[in-house]
Amino acid sequence: MTSNAKISVGDRVEPFTLPYEAGGTIDLGDHLGRDRIVLLFFPLAFTSVCTAEMCRLRDEWNAYASLDAAVFAISVDSPFVTSRFRAEESIPFPILSDFNRTVSRDWGVLYEEFHGFRGVAKRSAFVIGTDGKVAYAWVSEDAGVEPDYEELLQAVADAP
Q1: Secondary element (H or E) of residue 155
Q2: Sign of the dihedral defined by the CA atoms of residues 35, 32, 7, 92, in that order
Q3: Which of 13, 39, 80, 152 is close enough to 126 for a disulfide, judged by CB 3.0 to 4.6 Å?
Q4: Is 148 helix (H, G, I), strand (E, B) or coil?
Q5: pTM
Q6: 55 catalytic per annotation
Q7: Which residue among the candidates 5, 32, 40, 50 is catalytic per the annotation?
Q8: For the segment 69-113, what is each residue's pLDDT rounded down to a tens digit?
């Protein structure tokens, strides 16, 4: 976990709305206080590690669904890219576009510089309990490092 993250365990989460697919949006507020929520920020669609991460969650989807978790991935890619990525990889959960980088910035999970690009999301995982508070927070400074999936699933199971 990096000390630069602005959101940490125990923080109450403010709702946000991001584009989902072309023309639609998802409002996190519709799930806060009702569902356990998993937020997965990732750098860029169609890259090897990001694809591996999303496909791992896809393959373990039943475990998250059995815990009634609402899972959302977030990338700075456009909604057209996230939609295509989701379709091509058969991802069962929404991939939201933070193209304007507002949520990634608010959560403190943007790289200053990432292989010559500015404003790319750090690979991060957050679990929000039904109380609307962060129960788990993990942010990697190394885009090549995936989250500990067993730890993440346990955090969902343990969240209120």
Answers
A1: helix 149-158
A2: positive
A3: 39
A4: coil
A5: 0.93
A6: no
A7: 50
A8: 999 999 999 999 999 999 999 999 999 999 999 999 999 999 887
